[in-house]
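#lab-general

N.A. 3:47 PM
ok so I finally got the sequence cleaned up, no stray characters, all 261 residues accounted for. can someone with queue access submit it? mine expired

B.Y. 3:52 PM
send it over

N.A. 3:53 PM
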Amino acid sequence: MAGPRQLRRVQRGPWRVIGGHWLTPPLQASSSFSTTALLSKKKAPKASRAEAPPSPATGTDEPATDDPFDLTALTAAIAAARARLADDLAALRASRSGRFDPTLLEALRVQLRKGSGEKDSVVRLGDVAQVLPRGGRMVSIVVGEKDHLKPVSSTILSSPHSLAPQPSPTSPLELLVPLPPPTAEARAAALAAAGRAGEAATERVRRARQAQQKRLRRMELDRAVRPDDLRKAQQGMERAFGEGVKALGNEVAGWKRGVEG
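B.Y. 4:20 PM
back already:
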């Protein structure tokens, strides 16, 4: 039997004496438990990699939605440019074409004479008469009362607009006012302004075409369109651009013919 010194040495080793029997420590159980834990930790990253979404380089996570034949933005820009040009030309016709604006007559001040002992009153011509364009270079002035006909006619004659009203052969309450033709200087200024308005409209359409061209170029670099479809899309773009610019030019030319005629 081992002495106390030998027993203490045995207790420090891997064998242990309990109740007079030699017992082996459960190394296998603890070893398998720790090994299983390590394996489960190593498998976790593999599972996460398998569930990760596909890389954008595969092109499957973002399907292509661009249509090379879509000219919606270009056609909308052409329509907006035509509408803006029509408004600009209408403003030119009213203010810079050299034609007389009939609404200027409505702002003239008319002195209405009262009876004896009463003070005369001054009113706007538009308050006592209607100014009605009759087409061409003629304006009709219709008064509400026959007594207003003479003061209205005198006011128009003395105005700085060089107008000569005439009595109407069909109505005792109407005056006919022939309008003078536009001056050469005013006509030339109006024609130049119309040309600039047309150039501005064409530039807006040209910028829309450039945006469409950049869109097609991006699709070409991304290889999102076949070469044959790209060529056809570019032809459609150029066709729509040409038709839009031609329509703008026709509108300006028609307006100029109206001013010159």
